[in-house]
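Per reviewer request, we include the raw input and output of the structure prediction for the construct analysed in the revised manuscript.
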Amino acid sequence: MSRTLPKRIILVRHGESAGNIDGAAYNSIPDNKIPLTQLGIDQARDAGTQICNVVSQGGVSSNWKVYFYVSPYLRTRSTLREIGRAFPRKNVIGAREECRVREQDFGNFQIEERMKVIKETRERFGRFFYRFPEGESAADVYDRVSIFLESLWRDIDMNRHHPGPSEELNLIIISHGLALRVFMMKWFKWTVEEFEVLNNFGNCEFRVMELGSGGDYSLAIHHSDKEMEEWGLTPSMIADQHSRAQATRDVNWSERNLGTYFDQLSNSSSEDGDASPPPNGLH
């Protein structure tokens, strides 16, 4: 069975929630049960219209399908419900609740004053490695999102989404700001330093990772340089997105960050006859 690569992988943050406008909501409501506000519901409906317009290419194309992955939190499931109103039933393959793309765990009930101090400490420590007391660090989220990505590729390799041979498959992942930034970090092999400069998604903002002509995914196909700059991507990260839009899959992406790890690498080899002897006299 031949696999069908998704035409697009679209990452969507949930709409505005009660916790986004009043941090005191976390004092008495478990994070996973925080609801959307009315504005959040409206944002989700508007995002659904926009995303449907993207995958149908402005209504020109009809041979497309969508499959949804969604965090189990109330605000993400409610966002999916409202987004789904924009899609014809015949174009929706299915949806799956995916716990590994849930929100970063901050502990249980969150006392607003205490969380303010903790988040100030996180800014000094660094967003990626700081672990919330009784909760997770972004590094912990990275680990579980990485495992989800392995499952996602198995779904693709085994053709579990079952699109028709001539149909464009679009995967839509509805999750949370940090989890989605970590998803892109893992996918595009961004460093911790590059992650640290990224800005969060706005409520119901989405990023379109589209399949390029060479078989790799890129943000630069659908999004402008200005948009990527606003998200916090550096000039080298943006240049990388343009390369991915055109390059073939056999490009060695590991070379992109060589300058991050090495000041200078010699171009000589042991075949030149001038290589240094092994350390400690080992042969």
